[in-house]
């Protein structure tokens, strides 16, 4: 199957790109693979009364992905998978595209204007290393 891979970070811009990717996946009846990259795993401990909780960056990312996947499942009729990857976002997306034999990576255009464009962006990094087509969604107006 030719999977559509979408990279998200929990931002409104990334969620808009995810909705666009879901529409593409649904139109062409392709599986959707939602990826969130975290740069490193860190753990925060919290307590409430006698209960102690350990929350990691990967736990937060997984919950974010599950919530987004549930929202998208309500609007499309294709398989949706998720992955949290500990890496920089561009590398994570390209590696996931390779491992899923993706036909397309979808990214938002966050950080593709101004000084950030000179320093690099996720979209720019994906364009440099992608094993497949890349669709950059215009999410800032």
Tell me about this structure.
The protein is of the alpha/beta class. It contains five helices and seven strands, in the order βαβββαβαβααβ. The chain has helices at residues 12-28, 57-73, 89-99, 114-119, 122-129; strands at 4-7, 32-38, 43-48, 51-56, 80-86, 104-108, 133-137. The strands form two sheets. The protein has a five-stranded parallel sheet with strand order 5-2-1-6-7, sandwiched between helices. Strands 3-4 form a two-stranded antiparallel sheet. 32% of the residues are buried.
Overall structural class, as computed from helix and strand content, comes to alpha/beta
Distance between the termini: 33 Å
Tally of strands: 7
What is the 3D shape? globular
Q: What proportion strand?
A: 25-35%
Uncertain runs: 112-119
What descriptors fit this protein?
single chain; 141 residues; alpha/beta; five-stranded parallel beta sheet; two-stranded antiparallel sheet; 7 strands; 28% strand; globular
What's the helix and strand layout?
Layout: E1 4-7, H1 12-28, E2 32-38, E3 43-48, E4 51-56, H2 57-73, E5 80-86, H3 89-99, E6 104-108, H4 114-119, H5 122-129, E7 133-137
Parallel strand pairs: 1-2, 1-6, 2-5, 6-7
Antiparallel strand pairs: 3-4
Helix pairs in contact: 3-5
